[in-house]
């Protein structure tokens, strides 16, 4: 049961491991390509087809209108090359797209702007303008890791290296759920940052045993975010509209005045993508068969996004919703833990396959309405065809049962208030990978 003839054929047999994880996590940031024996290269693509729908609930329970499918299809890529110039030293370049989001709201609900929307229940947004359409979010990231490995013997591999990362995104908040932020736009210019990774792997080739643990650091980004708040821009351009607030209690009119002043704030926003740990386990259990497990932890509970203008205005109006220090555009209450486990089997020199089940904890029952799911269960099938010993084609499919969640706006985070319930949702992910040994 030599590792070069067995686990080399099965180690990557399911190319859609991450796909739809908690919060913004997508690729799973696998190190498996770097831990392949000898010289190795691969390129892969994953496609995700989710369905996430719900209904108004919580503060909008009186209307209870449907929230149609908000989750857009998207795809992401990865590639890797690993070189083994000597018996004791290796080098690799790994590219993936670790974090992402894509969603858009439509229909008639509190997440879509309409003529009946008001600010603080007093000022019609239709008189201000700039609040058409539905809530949308799109986030894209790219990672390039340079990894250097030292193998003192055939059992141990110690590795580390720098990580270059870019992030960009676009957020549009629409609908009565966002009150003063109905019509808020944030365009996050592509920004870059540097981090690092380090890990250790242990293997016993005779029994196809391989264990690895990899830590990835946080990465800070100083981002330029172009922000517009349509309601406040409209009030600034036409102060006469403030007359609609004349009958409001002084505490409300005073806070709106402070928000108008804060609307002029600008500057760079620090975005910190989270640290994570991956633990990969694999062992032979019988001839031509291995069992495997991948465990991942991501520190989402310390992640938040508060653009400069958004944050300044939130401090002005926060006391109205019990948040005297303001609130974030996006935050998560829990860390993510995910597990993917299964078996792989080599049927003959050309064909092998795998079966897996997966679980993801999610990042909290109450989550941002921009990504309203709480973890998942999934089942996956993978197959590999090797026309020759030195190259192969892999394909995989996974079906996800997405966890029910309650969708919150930023001002509701940390409370049990929410605007929507999203239940009985699912996703299908497809993956394709080409690998070459040289």
UniProtKB/TrEMBL annotation:
InterPro entries per the UniProt record, alphabetical: OMPP1/FadL/TodX (IPR005017)
Domain of life: Bacteria
Extent of the signal sequence: 1-21
PANTHER family, A to Z: OUTER MEMBRANE PROTEIN NMB0088-RELATED (PTHR35093:SF8)
Membrane topology annotation: Multi-pass membrane protein
Keyword annotations: Cell outer membrane, Membrane, Signal, Transmembrane, Transmembrane beta strand
GO CC list: cell outer membrane
Membrane found in the keyword field: yes
Protein name: Long-chain fatty acid transport protein
Pfam families for this protein: Toluene_X
Compartment(s): Cell outer membrane
Family stated for the protein in its record: Belongs to the OmpP1/FadL family.
GO MF: long-chain fatty acid transporting porin activity
